[in-house]
């Protein structure tokens, strides 16, 4: 993963709550409440290019590429407060295939879930943004003998992340034309080197069909209930596995214990601060290569402190952390780190967590975690 992509993610999650003007008056806001469930099918074509975020990629990126995607999306009905706050967002599932037109990188496919939030809505027009993530597949990867020019990715199976901005024009009550901008990212999060990542920027156009009887959408005043707790404390344990050398089968254990105290600033956002205690087994390899003769167990540990920002959609938190190590024997990767992740809360106050930890926006490890929420 590269710094530019993560800068875009950081900025996007920071400003996305303000894209929706409903946050200005959160207790009583007008929302469109449909009288029936709305199901849609969308088919689009994409034409774009691979972002050359490292100069070394100039040698093996050959031409523009094209892709296609098919998506099923269902609109929420406003029965839950988060649906009203976010202007009745869509949840959906999509499949994409991208011909990279490149013998070194091969082709890319992705199966992903997504959240699509309306920003501007008129009787025949909708402008929205979409956040998607899922499983990415690349047909070719780095190999020290057979494909040594591929310094972008070291694995076939990867994480897929996408951001879309889309216009939708209804030419009938059920059929619409779509067009917009798409940023797609494939990466293994540092589990297999190399991992520069593949970023694809493209324009897209297609059609969208709305199924079923279309009821009239009317503005109705709804009272939105804010979270009962104004603060909460999340504690969780995470584990991951790191690769530090190309073509090496060795993976090192990475784990952490974290706590985060946050304050609700609206029905959409929380801000807070937290502590990490990180154990990184791969530091032994790095210290040995740097010439250290005596490696103490304490050198594997890196305590840190961080600031947090959460974008809330029902039980799902999309969050970013910006942190710094309080102590670290290994200093070559810097003292600053960040996280980009998802946290899903269950009814019993337990939650599941997945995040990507980075150093200066270079992916270090994918963290898989479970935790508990106090004062939620």
Write a structural description.
By secondary structure, this protein is mainly beta. The protein folds into two domains: 3-221, Porin, CATH 2.40.160; 231-374, Porin (Beta Barrel), CATH 2.40.160. 8% of the residues lie in helices and 56% in strands. The protein contains three helices and 18 strands. It has helices at residues 3-19, 81-85, 283-289, and strands at residues 28-33, 38-50, 65-75, 90-99, 107-122, 125-138, 157-170, 175-187, 198-211, 218-223, 231-242, 252-264, 269-280, 301-313, 316-325, 336-345, 350-359, 362-374. The protein has an eight-stranded antiparallel barrel with strand order 2-3-4-5-6-7-8-9. An eight-stranded antiparallel β-barrel has the order 11-12-13-14-15-16-17-18. A hairpin with a 4-residue loop joins strand 7 (157-170) and strand 8. It is flat and about 75 Å long. The two termini are 33 Å apart. 38% of the residues are buried. Residues 21-29 have low confidence and may be disordered.
Mean pLDDT: 86
| N-to-C CA distance | 33 Å
Class based on secondary structure composition and strand pairing: mainly beta
Outline type: flat
Tell me which CATH architecture of the largest domain applies here: Beta Barrel
Largest beta-sheet characterization:
8 strands, antiparallel, barrel
Give the spatial strand order of the biggest sheet: 2-3-4-5-6-7-8-9
Strand content: over 45%
Q: What proportion of the residues is helical, as a percent range?
A: under 10%
CATH class of the largest domain: Mainly Beta
What does the radius of gyration come to?
Answer: 22 Å
Provide the succession of SSEs.
HEEEHEEEEEEEEEEHEEEEE
Which runs of at least 5 residues are low in confidence (pLDDT < 50)? 21-29
* Number of strand elements: 18
Briefly note the CATH topology name of the largest domain. Porin
**Number of separate structural domains:** 2
Number of helices: 3
């Amino acid at each position: 993963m590269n710094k530019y992509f993560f800068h875009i993610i950081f900025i996007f999650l920071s400003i996305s709550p303000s894209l929706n003007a409903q946050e200005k008056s959160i207790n009583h806001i007008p929302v469109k409440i449909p009288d029936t469930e709305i199901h849609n099918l969308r088919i689009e074509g994409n034409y774009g290019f691979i972002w050359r975020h490292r100069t070394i990629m100039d040698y093996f990126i050959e031409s523009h590429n094209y892709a296609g995607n098919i998506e099923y999306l269902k609109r929420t009905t406003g029965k839950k407060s988060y649906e009203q706050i976010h202007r009745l967002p869509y949840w959906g599932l999509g499949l994409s295939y991208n011909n990279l037109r490149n013998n070194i990188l091969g082709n890319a496919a992705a199966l992903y879930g997504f959240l699509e939030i309306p920003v501007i809505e008129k009787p025949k027009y909708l402008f929205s943004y979409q956040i998607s993530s899922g499983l990415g597949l690349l047909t070719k990867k780095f190999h020290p003998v057979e494909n040594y020019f591929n310094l972008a990715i070291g694995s076939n199976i990867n994480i897929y992340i996408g951001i879309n901005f889309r216009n939708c024009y209804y030419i009938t009550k059920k059929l619409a034309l779509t067009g917009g901008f798409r940023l797609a990212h494939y990466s293994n999060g540092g589990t297999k080197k190399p991992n520069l990542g593949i970023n694809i920027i493209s324009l897209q156009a297609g059609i969208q069909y709305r199924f079923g009887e279309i009821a009239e959408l009317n503005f109705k005043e709804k009272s939105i209930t804010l979270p009962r707790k104004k603060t909460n404390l999340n504690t969780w344990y995470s584990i991951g596995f790191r690769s530090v050398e190309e073509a090496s089968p060795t993976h090192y254990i990475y784990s952490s214990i974290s706590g985060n105290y946050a304050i609700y600033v609206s029905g959409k956002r929380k801000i807070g601060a937290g502590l990490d205690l990180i154990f990184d087994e791969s530091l032994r390899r790095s210290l040995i290569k740097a010439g250290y003769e005596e490696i103490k167990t304490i050198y594997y540990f890196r305590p840190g402190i961080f600031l947090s920002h959460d974008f809330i959609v029902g039980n799902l938190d999309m969050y970013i952390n910006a942190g710094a190590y309080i102590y670290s024997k290994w200093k070559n990767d810097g003292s600053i780190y960040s996280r980009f992740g998802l946290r899903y809360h269950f009814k019993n106050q337990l939650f599941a967590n997945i995040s990507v930890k980075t150093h200066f926006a270079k992916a270090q490890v994918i963290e898989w975690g479970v935790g508990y929420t106090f004062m939620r």
